[in-house]
Amino acid sequence: MATLIVTPFTPREGTGRGLRTIGVARALARTDDVEIAYIEFDGSRPSATLRSERRLSLRKLEASRGPSRAAVYARARMAGIPRGFARGISRELMTGAEVGGRFERVVADGPIAAAALLLLARSRRVVYNAHNLESGFRSGLSTGQRDYGDPERLQAFERKIMTGASETWLPTFRDMREAATVAPGATLRYVPNVVDVRAISPVPPSGAGRVLFLADFSYEPNRNAARLLVHDVMPRLWKINPAARLALVGRSPEFSDDVDRRIEVLGFVEDLDGQYAMSDCAVVPLLEGGGSPLKLIEALAYGLPVVATPLAASGLEAAKAGIHYVEADGPGPLAESLASVLGGDGAEIGPRGRELVEAEYSIEALASLLARSNESPR
After folding, report:
1. What are phi and psi for residue 190, nearest 5 degrees?
2. What is each CA distance from 107 to 39, 121, 224, 333, in whole angstroms?
3. Is 220 helix (H, G, I), strand (E, B) or coil?
4. pTM above 0.85, yes or no
5. What is the pLDDT of residue 143?
6. 213 within some domain
């Protein structure tokens, strides 16, 4: 089957959004001829891993500006598309799938692309690749809500794109259950977030007493999680282990040089392998947000022990607390669990986490799942 993926962002690493797009595209390319039509975003270039896929090609779309873009925006708003999504729609994105019918399947990557291709869905098979259930994901965020409307309007928009698509792909079973309530009758399929496990070599704990939190800190739940670590968790951990260190790695960290010297605020780095190799464990202390955090899957793939909150791990239903990761909720339990892991407890958890990701959250596992065409969507 020939598959076209239409996305309003450059498919690249660095964000959970980009990693999902790359994972889905590479899994499809195991059995399909795949083309990604994308709008160049932030001047960034597509991931080199996509160019390594023999059956995958890339086509850049040039987004229009000025009156043409304004007219598309106005039409989208009149159609009930929330401001935050309507801003990303361009005429080129809308026509990106008009390629002479040579693709048997068109995948709209995310809500902006799905909204742009709503009309196309009436005559072509359009799959909506959802990165989250937007109405559930955004309900807990405190900023920027006016861009997406009140919960009822956001649900109405989401219902429209899910019922208009031939299928909606969702990253967690929790999202599947909630989507069935938001859009009764929509065809839903479980398509989890995945990472390239074969490209990740597991590392042993470094023995340096270093805790790693790797995230995109432009995302509000990650910023709040970092504040929790810096202000509430680490002071408690230092009472148990004064030599413990915390590394915050990822774009847009908000902390300045006046934090405790045992906290490294590194920002974006190219060498993730090196960051994991210098660490003893990873932590994913999310208290809000949705989906399955790709950085949690990635951390498990490196084979280090991972300490995660129940919310962070709730999107990975195959993962079991105490077997594949250490679960802790709140500043005190997080500090105690980190102290225990840094002290050498639970050494077997890291390798078991790696085994889980290989079996359930790898590109190969997703390719196998998508290839089961004889199974009906849920």
Report:
1. -80, 115
2. 15, 10, 33, 42
3. helix
4. yes
5. 47
6. yes
